[in-house]
Amino acid sequence: MDYELYTEVVLTKNLNRTKFKKGDVATVTGIEEIGKKRFLKLEFFTILGESMGIFTVNIESVKSLQPNGIVNMREFDR
Fold first, then answer.
1. How many domains does the chain have?
2. SS3 at position 61
3. Helical spans, DSSP H, in 1-78
């Protein structure tokens, strides 16, 4: 799947060593190709738009937002 900069994606699995979980939504802020593998730089925001961090993930760790998806809020301890 190809993703464009500044589009939203959803995690398909928990990010190890972080508090970000499967189902969290992030914005694509960078796209990298290393060898034959593709990676996305993702920025996570609070529901009010405050940046919570930027992480690079394998492109297989995300999927596009779906028309039948629903947003859910959970509290996040920093």
1. 1
2. helix
3. none
